[in-house]
Design goal:
rod-shaped, 2 helices, signal, DUF3012 domain-containing protein, 4-stranded antiparallel β-sheet, alpha+beta
Length: 66
């Protein structure tokens, strides 16, 4: 019985880890996101491009979304 519980817990932990990794990855054309919004290509005032969250681009870096 103890081995069944160990196998069940290991399977649960493995599956939940994969679900978390897949939800944060940018796969299938979906854009990754964070607490500061989706990650976008941000054009900075000096003309450089940066890949950063939307709110960081607009508020901290004074950039525009491309």
């Amino acid at each position: 019985m103890k081995s069944v519980i160990v196998v069940a817990m290991a399977t649960f932990l493995f599956m939940s880890g994969n679900a978390m990794a897949n939800s944060s990855a940018s796969s299938g054309g979906a854009k990754a996101s964070s607490a500061a919004g989706p990650w976008v290509e941000c054009q900075l005032p000096d003309g450089k491009m940066d890949y950063t969250p939307l709110m960081i681009c607009k508020l901290q870096k004074n950039g525009t979304v491309k």
